[in-house]
From TrEMBL:
Keyword field: Metal-binding, Zinc
Gene Ontology biological-process entries: peptide modification
Protein name (record): Lanthionine synthetase C-like protein
InterPro entries: LanC, LANC-like
Organism of provenance: Asanoa ishikariensis
SMART domains documented for this protein: LANC_like
Gene3D superfamilies from the UniProt entry: 1.50.10.20
MF GO annotations: metal ion binding
Sites where the protein binds Zn(2+): C295, C344, H345
Source superkingdom: Bacteria
Length: 420
């Protein structure tokens, strides 16, 4: 459906807030690290991050420039900052950091980028993808559990697949990633506390940093959990890009999410994670939904399931996903848990997810729920100055969401968070 325009005063506020934040982020600030600080925790490395640094801000300015609302010089300034140091293509590199993040920023922000520059990055990303696929193949052979970093959106093969779907949708490497995700949905005959009935994406990672949880866990969220692979498989299918077993894999994930759907008085919700004890008990210990974030909450999970339903041509599941999001948006208790304007876990993530979901929805309920969410985004963006860098965790995410809603355009930046 076509999303109705916002009323003129709100539309003006949306546009002016986007402009204000973009102006505050027009130039990279002076480096806030010592020139000789190359330590692993140095803020120097934020530059090559979509989440907290220059690569993400370049996407904001590139989207604005492509729609005729900004200049190209800020794009180039932020890209220069992002590439000031050697780019990481090893531990920690993924869609949100290192070579893939800069390649994604360049692809999204500068469609006129020099082919040589993109070619170098393409080869580096392809090398990383092949290494990760080889490591996953060895892990499958050993019948071991994956780590979240093997398959998640932030640094795993789902995020790399999202970039490939944006950059080279006809390539063989994307199909290898999709085939890997299909296999990920199949059970692993591992001898551990989770047992043979646990899904193939059951992770060996501890739940809390430094605390070992017996039997690992299953993560349901968009950022680190199975909703990310579901969204990528669905978005690829929507472009008629499929591999053997593609629809079955989408169905397996959806059925598993159906099993763990919790029905509360304010609507359905899903736990963020499940331990082996919860899995075997058939019930999470959580008794109410957490904050309605893109990364772990109902909005991201509902959008992933809406995309899956569209890919499977399943009107019942589509309606169920849209209703889950609409009821979440109508619950003041859930909305009251959001305290910042970010894309990851704040108002921008909620607004962007709702906007894209409303564009695909068959009813007007999501479009009707959007204006109050946008007002909250503006309020929180205005109350948290000065602007922080970064697309996912900084103010650039708020600005790009507001710009998209104000201009009613889509430059496909949302592939960074797999909501479109």
């Amino acid at each position: 459906m076509r999303i109705p325009p916002l009323d003129p005063p709100l539309e003006q506020a949306v546009d002016s807030t986007a402009v204000r934040i973009a102006d505050m982020l027009a130039h990279p600030p002076p480096p806030d690290f010592a020139p000789d600080d190359y330590g692993p925790r140095s803020r120097r490395w934020h530059a090559q991050s979509l989440s907290k640094g220059a690569a993400g801000v370049a996407i904001l300015h590139g989207v604005r420039a492509q729609t005729g609302h900004g200049e190209w010089e800020p794009v180039h300034e932020w890209l220069r900052r992002a590439t000031a140091d050697p780019l990481n293509n090893a531990g920690g590199a993924g869609l949100w950091f290192g070579v893939p993040a800069v390649a994604h920023a360049l692809t999204t922000a500068t469609p006129h980028a020099h082919p040589r520059n993109l070619g170098l990055l393409d080869r580096a990303v392809a090398d990383l993808v092949r290494r990760q696929l080889d490591a996953a193949a060895a892990r499958f052979q050993e019948r071991a559990r994956p780590s979240l970093g093997e398959f998640d959106l932030v640094r795993g093969l789902t995020g790399l697949g999202s970039h490939l779907l944006r950059r080279n949708p006809d390539g063989l490497l994307l199909r290898r990633v999709l085939a890997y995700l299909v296999r990920l949905t199949e059970p692993v005959a591992a001898h551990d506390e989770a047992g043979p009935t646990a899904p193939g994406w059951w992770a060996a990672d501890p739940l809390v940093r430094g605390t070992v949880v017996p039997g690992g866990h299953a993560n349901l969220g968009m950022a680190h959990g199975i909703a990310g692979p579901l969204a990528l498989l669905a978005l690829a299918a929507r472009q008629n890009i499929t591999v053997p077993g593609h629809a079955d894999a989408i169905g397996r994930i959806c059925t598993w999410l159906d099993t763990w759907r919790q029905n509360g008085p304010t609507g359905p919700w899903w736990p963020e994670r499940l331990t082996a004890a919860e899995f075997h008990a058939g019930q999470p210990t959580a008794t109410e939904p957490n904050r309605p974030s893109w990364c772990y909450g109902t909005p991201g999970l509902a959008r992933a399931q809406q995309l899956a339903a569209i890919a499977l041509a399943d009107p019942g599941r589509r309606q169920s996903a849209e209703d889950a999001l609409a009821r979440c948006l109508a619950d003041p208790a859930q909305l009251g848990r959001i305290i910042d304007p970010s894309l990851c876990h704040g108002w921008a993530g909620l607004a962007a997810t709702t906007w894209y979901a409303a564009a695909d929805a068959r009813s007007t309920s999501l479009a009707t729920a959007l204006p109050p969410i946008v007002r909250q985004l503006i309020q929180h963006a205005d109350s948290t100055a000065p602007a922080r860098s970064g697309l996912i965790e900084g103010h650039a995410g708020a600005a790009i969401t507001l710009h998209t809603i104000a201009t009613r355009t889509d430059i496909r930046w949302a592939s960074s968070v797999l909501i479109n």
